[in-house]
Write a structure and sequence with these properties.
16 helices; zinc; globular; mainly alpha
């Protein structure tokens, strides 16, 4: 049947392309499924009935309000989990001052609860915990989440709210003493969020935002961005990667991609307005580097933990789509076009399917951290589907401990444990004001 050849030829060529892609997609799904629990919720279908009992629409799509019943359920669960957390913290490591797993993280939670609910008792609890943290500073690490900058920044804000101006000024002064070491990269300081320059940068931004003024001059922030850019350019040239990515960053000899240690988190900050990067460097250095990260996307829509890692496994804020989405949304705001937003929306689909993690309910690598993706997408798009998804992940979190998830090493901490889940549930009370803690600006 020679007449079939012209028809079969293209079909076979397409099959050769599609079969490996489909196989890779199935393998990725299997890999992610081994780390996630099946999403039991039906997705938003666009109808008001679908979100009934969760939120009501008054005015525009960005004026959706949680129903009194759902808000009440959130408040009740927050109170319940707080009581459980406080009891559990009696056996926590007394030496851990950090925001990630220690006392500064608990202080940040109570500071946030004071912002949401306005109860002065929360502010007093924040003071108690941050004072505990200040007594245990590392004197080694300078970042918000894993070093001394976080406790000092949180303490400055707590004292400011308590109208203790002298104590607040002292904390800000101590915070700024690290600045020159950060700019110069003393002790081989990396550039990422948890242990590097961006982690210190966030501390300065946090103080300014919480004080509601330029408490720390923007030139300090600009100098750190200049140092980050110089570091990224230098490594890219050293690795001969300038054509693919004018900026390149490493941590522990790996080129991480996600929010916690990698490119996505760093580029998110370099694209912030008023940080002093400037249009020329945005277009010439940052944008092509962001576009390089986009090319690393798996067929599933997820992202690898490191450049060169072909395993489509992790759907966490720290590694994978839930952290990269913030870079993509910021690129959409700064550069426009449809591509960045389309990639961000694809992240949302990955997380809806594979984001209920067996690792637990925390922020760094848990369901609460993944749920923040939906709040970020909702704030940009105004699509009720994303607020609905955030609410359904919150319902999952409100069944804390009932899914057979792994117990984290620090089960009551901000980034691994229960404190982070409480933080998310409180943020959901005011979706338009929500921000992933210690990261989103």
């Amino acid at each position: 049947m020679p007449g079939w050849a012209p028809v079969l030829g293209p079909v076979l060529r397409v099959a050769v392309v599609l079969v490996p892609a489909l196989k890779a997609s199935r393998m990725a799904a299997h890999s992610m499924a081994s780390r996630a629990l099946k999403n039991p919720y039906r997705d938003h279908d666009g109808s008001a009935a679908c979100s009934q009992g969760l939120f009501d629409q008054h005015g525009g799509v960005l004026q959706l309000e949680l129903t009194a019943d759902f808000a009440g359920r959130l408040r009740s669960k927050i109170s319940e989990l707080l009581s459980h957390m406080e009891n559990g913290l009696k056996s926590a490591d007394p030496r851990d001052c950090s925001g990630y797993t220690g006392w500064a993280g608990i202080a940040l939670l109570y500071l946030h609860l004071h912002s949401v609910f306005g109860e002065t008792s929360y502010l007093q609890r924040a003071l108690d915990y941050v004072n505990r943290s200040l007594q245990r500073l590392t004197r080694r690490t300078v970042t918000f989440l894993c070093g001394d900058a976080g406790p000092l920044a949180v303490a400055a804000v707590v004292h400011h709210r308590l109208q203790k101006s002298q104590e607040a000024e002292e904390c800000v002064s101590r915070l700024l003493k690290y600045h020159q070491d950060v700019v110069k990269g003393s002790r081989n300081l990396p550039d990422e969020l948890l242990y590097g320059r961006v982690g210190y940068l966030y501390s300065l931004v946090f103080v300014n935002q919480q004080f509601g003024q330029e408490k720390i001059p923007m030139q300090y922030i600009q100098q750190i961005c200049d140092a980050i850019l110089a570091s990224g350019e230098s490594l890219s040239k050293k690795r001969r990667m300038q054509q693919q990515s004018p900026l390149l960053f490493e941590w522990y000899q790996e080129y991480y991609v996600g929010a916690a240690h990698g490119l996505g988190g760093i580029y998110y900050y370099l694209m912030q307005p008023d940080f002093g990067v400037g249009e020329e460097r945005l277009q010439g250095l940052v944008r092509p580097s962001v576009d390089y990260v986009r090319q690393l996307k798996f067929p599933s829509g997820n992202y690898p933990p490191c450049i060169g890692d072909s395993r489509d496994l992790l759907v966490h804020w720290c590694h994978g789509a839930p952290g990269v989405v913030y870079m993509l949304l910021q690129a959409h705001k700064v550069f426009g076009g449809d591509g960045y937003l389309a990639d961000a929306l694809q992240c949302g689909e990955v997380i809806w399917q594979w984001g209920l993690l067996q690792k637990g309910y925390g922020l760094c690598h848990g369901t609460a951290g993944n749920a923040y993706t939906f709040l970020a997408l909702y704030k940009v798009t105004g699509d009720p589907k994303y607020l609905y998804r955030a609410c359904k992940f919150a319902e999952w979190c409100m069944d804390y401990g009932k899914h057979g998830c792994r117990t984290p090493d620090t089960p009551f901490s901000l980034f691994e444990g229960m404190a982070g889940t409480i933080y998310f549930l409180a943020d959901l009370m005011q979706p338009q004001k929500s921000k992933f803690p210690a990261f989103e600006v």
